[in-house]
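Quick one from the shared queue. A colleague (R.T.) flagged Thaumatin-like protein as missing a structural entry in our internal table.

Convert sequence to structure tokens.
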Amino acid sequence: MTRHQKIFLSDVINMSKWGGRLWARQRCSTDSSGRFSCLSGDCGTGQVACNGAGGAPPTTLVEFTLQGDGGKDFYDVSCVDGFNVPVSVVPSGGSNCDSTSCRTNINARCPAELQMVAPDGSVDGDDDRKKEKTNDRTIE
């Protein structure tokens, strides 16, 4: 999780009015039959393109609404579907726009019962949705 990549929303979205989620996928590969999949953030299509499908938790989400209520843009970082990578949103242009992020790799502090463990034994995500099954234990 040391690789950093800048993604400019203007390079991804060609619409002035749009709302949606972006997420990172990790440990992706293509099997011998040509099926593409990822250990975290996989969208289940078997292809690189998700074609409207969401990423399977755990995924750190970046959510956008462009030209929303009153023509304003809204954005946030969410771990509602768990956590797989640190992310930051840094707006450019406009005024009174603050950055938002979840920059800390919380996998190191994730309780064992919430961890998503990779085949090599490393922790690849924190599946926060499992809290209901673990008496609402939280990461402190």
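The longest helix spans residues 9-12.
Residues 130-140 have pLDDT under 50 and may be disordered.
Added to the table.
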